[in-house]
Amino acid sequence: MGPANQTHISEFLLLGFSENPEHQLPLFGLFLGIYLIAVGGNFLIMLTIASDSHLHTPMYFFLSNLSLVDLCLVSTLVPKMLVNLLTHNKAISYAGCLTQMYFFMVFAGLDTLLLTVMAYDRFVAICHPLSYVTIMSPQFCGLMALLSWMISLLNSLLHTLLVMKLLFCTEHEIPLFYCDLTSVLKLSCSDTLINNILVYLTTGLLGVLPFAGILFSYTQICSSIMKVPSTGGKYKAFSTCGSHLCVVSLFYGTVLGVYLSSSVTQSSWKSSVTSVMYAVVTPMLNPFIYSLRNKDIKDALRRLISRRISSQ
Q1: Contact 31, 198 (CB under 8 A)
Q2: Distance between CA 127 and CA 132 in Å, rounded?
Q3: Angle of helix 21-51 relative to helix 282-293, nearest 10 degrees?
Q4: Segment 76-92, tens digit of pLDDT
Q5: CB 206 within 8 A of CB 107
Q6: Among the listed ranges 21-25, 189-193, 196-200, which one has the minimum average pLDDT value?
Q7: Closest CA to 81 of 272, 218, 230
Q8: pTM
């Protein structure tokens, strides 16, 4: 493509959902409600864990990190979508797009890494209970969380720096409600071979390998649970990882939905719906899954509410 068709564009257009003005206000109300529920739910989980000494364990330490990441993830995407819906303006600046893309990759990557670490925590707790306190020491847990943050931050930085070197065509429409790396790469007039190779590599390292680690952990967990002689013992052992398994299923199920929808359809509306399930609805549902299925969280919430009421 000739130089005349290459430019350093100043903005992108996020096509998102319906362009019908009558749909904008209902969509704004819907996503504002989802955003408030997601922020409130994840903040409540973090507050409950921080305020209750019974929950100062490795499992809930990682859960509080996951809630923080989910809160940051929806805050990276939804406010801009709400502004665009309210103003009927789909534009996002070039700098704003790269910033949103960077933080989205950071928090989405952290989701996969933290879910993997949480699966390892459950594996140690169920398969090696006598060594659990020794293996999952506070120092080790802090190191695992720090490594997860560093890996995700550096991965996102590398992708963003490579995107900044690209030139873009006059076509600047992104068929989603947020700036997605693969969608941005498709708009470039430059050679994106290195970018695409890096995308495949990091998808394997931060997507496939963590998922394989989770599958391995749960294979070992199921094997250990089946060896428990009593039905009550099996139920008690499985109940300690039931919430995490639900969150993992929801997360990877929606990720698979996003991948399949982008492969088989060119509809921006369908792509946006599946992306919303992955990037917005899942972070909203995670606090409810943990609070409704987890007895420790429910008990801690009751104690927190009781303290608040008695202090008034």
Answers
A1: no
A2: 9
A3: 40
A4: 999 999 998 888 888 89
A5: no
A6: 21-25
A7: 272
A8: 0.89
